[in-house]
Amino acid sequence: MDQLLAMRAYTRVVETGSFTRAADSLNMPIATLSKLVKALEAHLDVRLLQRTTRRVTATPEGQEYYEKARRVLIDIEDIDTSFSSVKQQPQGHLRIDVGGSTARDVLIPALPDFMRRYPEIRIDLGVADRPVDLISGNVDCVIRGGALEDSSLIARHIGNAEMVTCATPGYLKQSGLPAYPEELRNGHKLVCYLSPVTGRAVPFRFTQDGEIREINLVHRIGVNESNAHLAAAVAGMGIVQTFRYSAGALLEAGTLVEILDKWRPPHYPFYVVYPQNRHMTHRLKVFIAWLAEVFPDAVKG
């Protein structure tokens, strides 16, 4: 038995809760991974895992072994990185998850620069507004905005996006131009963004005299994906609050018109988030450093 490989296989099973996901993340046949874990249990003479029809979890002994094995694997990777990072460019596979409009309008246009700087890094980009589980999903980091609730993750602030309130000229001609936020209550149709987590409509927010005010109205249409959210406004379905970086070209072309600019929404914070219990590889370090460098300017719109 290759004990080091068996330790890697076992820790990935615990982290993903699945033999299939663990095997996929290690690019290993599931039969090979299963044999390694069984051989490790036989070597230790202890049951490490409990298997159910839905999920695989560690036994109390298995959890203790996982914590110790993870520290050993981190130390080994630290040793390897301390020597290899001096001699060569960072390399390997980086898995990143990001929301739809942020991928389209911010990250993907900037990525060619990163790929030129670090040609040995291969990227898998998951694009969805719905948040992923970094551990079970085997994701290195996610780029997310707004309030962060999971305290088990490390979040680094990377920039603030400007927000705008806007609608099409056709909608404003038909429904009238609101002079101040409260006028939205007078029959205006709102295109609301639905939280992919809660399913609730995100309220329209405005700043007035340094304070943030929220307006909650029954929306005309709610959309839970950022690109489709903006598309609904472009189709003339109502007033939208969105990122300036997404709406900028449409505003310049006159397809959309900014309104209520004296009460612009507060800036929207963005973070790069990664697990605190996973070793930060050299490739993840350089990606986060690059992101902190380019992201603030990219989200200004």
Any overview of this molecule?
The chain is built from 9 helices and 14 strands. It is of the alpha/beta class and 301 residues long. It has 3 domains: 3-86, Orthogonal Bundle (Arc Repressor Mutant, subunit A); 90-159 and 269-298, Periplasmic binding protein-like II (D-Maltodextrin-Binding Protein, domain 2); 163-265, Periplasmic binding protein-like II (D-Maltodextrin-Binding Protein, domain 2, 3-Layer(aba) Sandwich), CATH 3.40.190.10. A hairpin with a 4-residue loop joins β1 and β2 (56-58).
Task: Provide a quick synopsis of the model.
This protein is of the alpha/beta class and 301 residues long. It has helices spanning 3-16, 19-25, 30-44, 60-87, 100-117, 169-175, 226-234, 244-253, 282-298; strands at 49-51, 56-58, 92-98, 121-127, 141-145, 153-161, 163-167, 190-193, 204-208, 211-215, 221-223, 239-243, 257-259, 268-275.
| SSE string, helices as H and strands as E | HHHEEHEHEEEEHEEEEHEHEEH
- In DSSP terms (H or I, runs of 4 or more residues), the helix count works out at 9
Q: What is the percentage of strand-forming residues?
A: 15-25%
Number of DSSP-assigned strands: 14
CATH class of the largest domain: Alpha Beta
Shape, per Cα inertia axes? elongated
Main sheet summary: 5 strands, mixed
Tell me which oligomeric state these chains represent: single chain
The CATH topology of the largest domain, please?
D-Maltodextrin-Binding Protein, domain 2
Taking pLDDT < 50 over at least 5 consecutive residues as the criterion, the unreliable ranges are none
Radius of gyration: 24 Å
Mean pLDDT reading: 87
What share of residues is helical? 40-55%
Helix/strand/pairing category: alpha/beta
Number of domains: 3
